[in-house]
Write a structure and sequence with these properties.
The protein is an alpha/beta fold. It has a domain of 98 residues: GMP Synthetase, Chain A, domain 3, CATH 3.30.300.30. The protein is 30% helix and 21% strand. It contains 20 helices and 27 strands. Strand 14, helix 12 and strand 15 form a beta-alpha-beta unit. Helix 11 packs across helix 12. The chain binds adenosine-5'-triphosphate (ATP) and magnesium ion. The site of adenosine-5'-triphosphate has 26 residues, from strand 21 and strand 22. Pfam families: ACAS_N, AMP-binding, AMP-binding_C.
Length: 637
Amino acid sequence: MAVKEIVADIRHLSGEVYYPSPEVLERAYIKDYPSLYQRAMQDLEAFWAERAEELEWFRKWDRVLDDSNKPFYKWFVGGKINICYNAVDRHMKTWRKNKVALYWEAENGERRVLSYYDLYREVNRFANVLKALGIRKGDRVTIYMPRIPELPIAMLACARIGAIHSVVFAGFSVEALHTRIEDSKSRLVITADGGYLNGRIVETKRTVDEAVRRSPSVEHVLVVRRTRHEVPMEPGRDYFYDELARLPFAQGECPVEETDAEDPLYILYTSGTTGAPKGQVHVHGGYAVYIYTTMKWVFDIKDEDIWWCTADPGWVTGHSYIVYAPLMLGATSVMYEGAPTYPYPDRWWSIVEKYGVTVLYTTPTAIRGLMRFGDEWPNRRHLSSLRLLGTVGEPINPEAWRWYYRVIGKGRCPIMDTWWMTETGGFMITPMPCVPLKPGSATLPFPGIRADVVDENGNPCPPGVEGYLVIQNPWPGMSRTLYGDPDRYVKTYWSKYPGWFFTGDSARRDEDGYFYIIGRVDDVLKVSGYRLGTAEIESALVAHPAVAEAAAIGLPHEVKGEGIHCYVILKAGYTPSEALAEELRQHVAQLIGPIARPEAIHFVDKLPKTRSGKIMRRVLRARALGLPEGDLSTLEE
Ligand code: ATP
Ligand code: MG
C-alpha cells in the first residue's frame, strides 16, 4: 500500500537534508509524523472526527463522510456549525477575549490594534448593517477592498449571517471584478473609498462603480471610509458604512446563523495562472476543520505566537490562513496594508522586528524580490523573534530557499514549503516542524492525505520520474463544486482518473518519497522527447549570481519539438549582453544537462505575473507566438 512508501524512514534521508533541532522538536505539537500519518490513514473518518471535536458545533454530525454521490463528497453530514462563531464568539468565553487578534499597520505607519472582543463588536455591527441592507442566508456578497481590518470583518460578518462572500483582490481590473460579480450574481458589493499602495491611492470605489454599471444583480454598494478622498456616491444605491453603523439597527449582538456543515461559506475564483478563473465553493464545516488542523500542526501555533501571513486576504491563502484559521486558533496576527518595499526594501523586516513576529509565511516571488536588494536590508533589523518560516504559491527555487533559511531564519528556522491550491482549501503536501527538510521540496503529505505521482495510466512513477500529481482520497477541506458549473468541476478534477483528484500540477518524488512540484502540467516542456519542468530551468537560472528572476517557456522547434526560451531579470549591477546570455545558456546546460540548454535568453525588466505573484507563462508563450493572450483579468499591471 502507498502508505508505507510515503513514510519511509525519515531519520535517514539522502541529499541535502535539514533535520529539526532539539528545540524545534521540543516545542512541536507533532513529534512523530510517520506514526501520526499511519494512524490517520488507517481510519480516515475517525481521524477527522477527532479533529472536528476541537471546534464548537451547535449540533454534532451524524456521519463524517458521505461518499454516496462521488465526486460530490459531503463531510460532517447533519452537523451544524458556523465558522464565524468559532473564529470570534468562542473566544468571548475565555481569557482570549482580551487578547490581541490583529495588529494592523498602514503604509504610513498608522496602526490599529483589535482585541478579540473588539473584533466581536465590529463583526456584530457589520453583520447588523448587512441585514439592514436586506442580505440573508445564501445571498452572495462581493468584497473588493484594500488590506484593512474591515476586509476580514466583512468576511466574518457574511459568514455570521450565512451569506456567501466572494472576495475579489483589490488589484483586479474592472473587467475581472465585473465577471466575478456576474458569475456569483452578488446582491451587494462591499468596498472602500480607496486604499494605499506605494504611497498612492488605489481607487477601489471608482473601479466598483464601473464594474457594477453592467451588473443588474447588484442592489447596493457599501463603502468603508479609508482614504477619505472624494468619491462619487449614487443615492439610494451607495452607503458609507460608518454612517449606517451609527444607526440603532447596527447596535448590539447579531445572532449567529446556525449554518449546516455543508452550507457554502464562500466562493473564490482561482488565480487564473493557466486559464479562466474557476469559482471554487468552500463550506462552513469540513473547511473549518481542515484549515484549523493544518495550521495548528504545520505552523505549530501557540498562544504566545505572533503570526504574519503576508498574502492578501483576496486569495485563498488569505482566506484560510489570515482570516479563518488563525482566528479559530485564537492567534495574534499581523496585517500590513502596503507594498513590501515601501518606503525602503526593509519594510517587511522592520515589521518583523517591531511586532516580534514569530512565524512568517510568504511567497517565493516575494523572497526572490527582496533577495535582489541584498543581505544588508534584513541584516540591519533584529529578526531573532522568528522561529518558523513558510512559503506558498510556486515551487521555491533552492537558491531562494537557502537565502530565506540563512539570511532571514539565521539557520534556526525550519521552512514550511506548503503545496496546496484554492481547490484544496488548505495545505496538502507540506512539512511539519518535526519533518526533515530538503530545499525545493514540499516534503510529504499531510496526515489524512494520500498523494502520489503517476503516469498517464495512473501507475506510480518510479523515483526521479516526473508525472501527474494526484490526491487519492477525499479530505474535509476540498472545494465542493465550481459555482454554477458542477459539470466543469467533474471534468476538470475528477475525470482523468476516476476516483482521484487531478491537481493539474506535475511533480516527481525522490528515493525517500519526498515530493518536488515541477509546475503546471500545461507548462511542462518537451524537448527532443524529454520532459522538462519550468521550475527546474528557472531554478538553474536563479542560481546564477547575475539572475534575480527567470521564466522558461517552450516554443515550437523544427528538430527538438520544443525549444526552451528564457526571460531573465538581472540583479542590480548587471547589464544585458550577448556574452552574458551565452554564459547563462551554458550555466543551465551544465546544471541540468545539455538537453536543457536554452535556445534564447531574453533580458527583460518585468515578467507577466498574476496579482498573487505567479509567473503567467501562457502569456509569454502567446506573445512570443503572436497569438491572442487569452484571459488577462488577473494580470498584474
Ligand atoms: P488557475 O488554477 O486559475 O490557473 P492557480 O492555479 O495559480 O490559478 P491557485 O489555486 O492560487 O491558482 O494556486 C495553486 C497552484 O499554485 C498549485 O496548483 C501549484 O501550481 C502552485 N503552488 C502552490 N503552492 C505551491 C508550492 N508550495 N510549491 C509549488 N507550487 C505551488
Ligand atoms: Mg490552479
